[in-house]
Amino acid sequence: MFPDADYSGRLDRARALMDERDADVMLLSVGADLPYFAGYEAMPLERLTMLVVPKDAGAVLVVPRLEAPRIALRGGAFEVWPWDELDDPVGVVARHAGKADLALIGEQTWSRFLLELQRTMHRTRFESASAVTRQLRMRKDAAEIELLRAAAAATDRVVAALDGVAFGGRTERDLAAEVQRLVMAEGHDIASFAIIASGPNAASPHHEPTDRMIEEGDTVVVDFGGRWHGYCSDTTRTFVVGEPSPEIAAAHSVLEAAQAAGRAAVRPGATGEDVDAAARKVIDAAGYGDHFIHRTGHGIGLEVHEHPYIVAGNSEPLEAGMTFSIEPGIYLPGRFGMRIEDIVACSTDGIDELNRSPRTLHEVS
Ligand code: ZN
Ligand code: ZN
After folding, report:
1. Per residue in 140-152, pLDDT tens?
2. CATH fit for domain 7-137, picks 3.40.350.10, 3.50.30.50, 3.40.50.300, 3.40.50.620
3. What pTM does this model have?
């Protein structure tokens, strides 16, 4: 599922950052850090999988023996150490970690394993590995951006297909199943989620599809994504069944202008909060400020939500290679909601737009 990449180079860059922090070893388990450094995703189950990255020695992937056949060796970036059912995998990890004063541990590691590691490595201090992993993972290389572009293009084709689909008279749940089928048909590995939020339900940004029947005049927020060779897609367009009311049409024009202002603010050196403020200003000025109830966006890559976050308070400058969503919304409780979401990359001279389907209100029957 995960493409070939310079895994040895990524591990070397991690070791350089570990050195700056005086960390002796980094321990990564479930979540997206492991695929980033080893091209392998741990099963989120009770058997421990852990990549042990000592600062001064080769990396070792400790895995349950029954999962070892799934591992691609990635040009010797790491060694594989399969453990048997009666072994103590925490002891195996501790042995490979060696004498460590400071260990960095992946943030999504189960607390059960961290507690056992702390008992076994009782002289070692544990800190989050995110200080190292986020620095590397949020700066995408050209190949990662091309995977995100291909994932986004596939979701754009799904949006184009939805323009020809009848929404009225079917349930949110039924339409969600169709969106997920289209996502798979367009070549994704996994259809991770499909939010179909119609009529008053559209005012809830993370609505779960229900058996509500979609009606004439409804706005329908369609927010969906999946994984493409391990990289995530995530796009939103708002549809309307039949002619939009003047109020809905006007609000959507405001939203289009806000989303465009967010995109126009993207360039190296601008911050996440600059992009958020640019989009928010347009919505505030039109009087909908209280109805834009979430941040403007999130980073995306191997995880659908990761750094950098496009939110007030994030004053870290954007750099070429950072990829994230721009997704302002307007939500009127009990009445309607709308959102426009694109994935974009910051490029050396501004923005590289990965999603390109029309951002207008999509009229359907
Ligand atoms: Zn989304
Ligand atoms: Zn999103």
Report:
1. 999 999 999 999 9
2. 3.40.350.10
3. 0.96
